[in-house]
Amino acid sequence: MEALSKSQVAAHREVQRAQVLLMAADGFANEWIARVVGVNPGTVRAWRVRFAEDGLKKLGSVKPGRGRKPVIPESKIQEIVELTQNSRPEAQTHWSVRTMAARTGVSPAQVQRIWAARGLKPHLVETFKLSTDPHFDEKLIDVCGLYIDPPENAIVLCLDEKTSIQALDHTQPSLPMKKGRGETMTHDYKRNGTTTLFAALEVATGKVIGSCIPKHRHEEFLAFLKTIEKQVPAGLQIHLILDNYATHKHADVKAWLGRHPRFHLHFTPTSSSWLNLVERWFRDLSDKALRRGVFHSVPDLIEKIEEYIQVNNKDPKPLIWTATAESILEKVSRGRVALQAIKQN
Questions:
Q1: Which helix (H) or strand (E) holds 294?
Q2: 23 within a domain of the structure (yes/no)
Q3: Which of 55, 77, 255, 338 has its CA 20 to 30 A from that of 322?
Q4: Quick check: 164 and 282 in contact, CB under 8 A?
């Protein structure tokens, strides 16, 4: 009871009851106890009587009939949960608190509390795609192994192309941020051309080798491989993690790689771009440098991208991969089972 009276995590009512009973044991009057603890004298008397009858065994319980009665019966709650998970409103893709309230005869606030208590969010949808690559398992294990236990005397690079980056210029000047209002810009824009960014993210350090090139054919890919060859110190093996884009497997590329044996290519499974860490870096580039940028020309766009790479490499931060291949394979297996069950139904 001493511990309960000082608890920071127990229910406030239980803490008060323990304090009352301890003060009563010390001989204090009911009125004085009620004033100190912050309850009614009648409550103090009731708690003392109950303790005299039941002792410690029922200290944390509530007698039947006490406390606030539920506003919504359990059957109504189950109905709302069932409808949320297994049905849709007529001519709509998902339930809202208002459509569910109208359907079940409760208030929108009550629907929201029921959803929140059970973690239901019908307004949100998450995208996914399970890879159908017949060699998914071995490719996944290969790439995860490079992330978690990279080889010695080698550099691991995540490589990909960010294609069709648009040089967008808004039709009117933006208005600066001020008190009570964020920065504003026009909803329409002018297109001033595009560029393609070839980027290779060094897993261990977070540094990026990048080149902006007008196209992304196998010729441009070969040129970027030669850039990597020049920038990576001699004596280091080069392990490249990349996707299954056709230019990466062109005959000219294979011939060049045959003459440069320190290059080792590791392909991610199809439909598994999430496995390539450079995609995460591309997202940062878009959020921090491109989405709200104003570019009057393609050279202007390229200059801003190169500036972002330079700043990144001054203080690089590696993207740490923690998921094991086994944990991913387990999740994918569950996803395939669930997807198969839906197809059968």
A1: none
A2: yes
A3: 338
A4: no
